[in-house]
Amino acid sequence: MKKQQFTLIYLLLTALIIISSFSCETDNSINYTHTDPIIDVPEFNRDSAFSYVQKQVDFGPRVPETKEHNACADWLKKKFDSFGWNTKFQEADVTGFDDQPMHIKNIIATINPELKTRVLLCAHWDTRRIADQDTENKEKPILGADDGGSGVAVLIELARAISTKEINLGIDIVLFDAEDQGESSNAKGEYRKETWCIGSQHWSKNMHTMAKKPYMGILFDMVGSKGARFPREGLSVRHAAGVVNQVWGEALGLGYSDLFVNDKFHELVDDHLFINDIAKIPTIDIINLPTNPTANGTFGHYWHTHKDNMSIIDKHTLGAVGDVIIQVLYKNSAGIL
Ligand SMILES: [Zn+2]
After folding, report:
1. How remote is the CA of residue 126 from the centroid of ligand 1, in Å?
2. Cα(296) to centroid(ligand 1), Å
C-alpha cells in the first residue's frame, strides 16, 4: 500500500469513528421544540420558595407517625387553604417498609374542581428515618431540605402564584407520604421496590374515586440544590415523552438548559413509577442526578445524609424549576402546548 493511499484510508476511518461516536451521542439526546412566545405568567417568587423549604426544615425531620410530621402536615394544609385551594388529608393504615402497620397522610390540594382537563403536580413530603448513606449518626433521621423539602416548597409557591391569575386548567397537587422510608436492600440482598413510595402507591390504587383523572403529571424530587442537574429520566421518557418535551423545551426557551440538560438517564424507582403503572397517568420525574455520581450512588453527595440541610439549597435552582413549570401550565391552559 502506498503511503498516500494509507493516509487516505486512515483519514476515512478516523472520520467514520468520529461520525459514529457522534451518532451515539445524538441517540441519547433529542431536539427540543420550544413553543414561542414566552407567555405572560404570574411571578414564581424564589425567595418565597426558599422560605418554604426553611419552614419545613424548622419542624425537624418529617418521619411518619412523629409529632414533627403531624405539625408539618397541619401547616401544609393551612398554607394551601390560605391560597384558596381546597385541601384535604388522605389518611390510611398501610403496611410499612418493615412489614409493620404504618399510618400515613397524603395531602391533596385542588383548584378548579369542576374542570375535566386536569394536571397532577406532586412531591413527597416525608423525610428519611435514617441517614444510611452517611458515615456518622446513620440511625438518626435526616432534615431532608432537598429530599422532601424542595419539591414541596416549589408546589406551595406554584399554588400561591396560580391563585393570583386565573388558569383554565384543573390542578391536583398531591404531597405523598412515606416515599422515603424504604429498605435499601434486605438481609438477603434483595431490593424490594414496594417498600418505597408507599403514599403514592396508596393514592394510585385509590384515585379511581377522583371524578376527573389528570391527563399528565409532574413529580418534583430533589429540585432545590446548588448546581442541580436534571437529565431526562428513563421511565419518564418511556411513559410520558410528550410531557418531557414540554418541560425540557420550555427550559430551553427560558435559558435553563444548564439545569435541564439534554441527556438521558436510566429508569428510577420513584413515585412516578407507581403513578404510571397503577394510576396510568403519564407522569415525569424532575430529579437531581449529578454528572459524576459519588460513591453513594446516582444522586447528590448529600443524598440520605445529614448534609441534606439548608446549606445545599439554592434559590436559583428552585426559581428555575418554578419558572419552567408555570410557563408549561399556563401554555397548557391557553392550548399552546
Ligand atoms: Zn430520598
Report:
1. 9
2. 12
User: pLDDT by residue (tens digit) across 89-122?
Assistant: 999 999 988 889 999 999 999 999 999 999 999 9
Q: Please name the CATH architecture into which domain 42-179+191-333 falls.
A: 3-Layer(aba) Sandwich (3.40)
CA of 334 to the centre of ligand 1 (A): 35
- Closest of 308, 183, 177, 336 to residue 249, by C-alpha: 336
Whole-number Å distance between alpha carbons of 272 and 171 = 17
Helical pair 315-333 and 46-58, crossing angle rounded to 10 deg: 120
**Ligand 1 mean position, distance from CA 320 (Å):** 21
Report if pTM > 0.85: yes
Beta pairing partners, 283:
217
Centre of ligand 1 to C-alpha 89, Å, is: 22
* Residues 254/256/261/266 CA torsion (nearest 10 deg): -90
- Domain boundaries, given as residue ranges, for the chain: 42-179+191-333
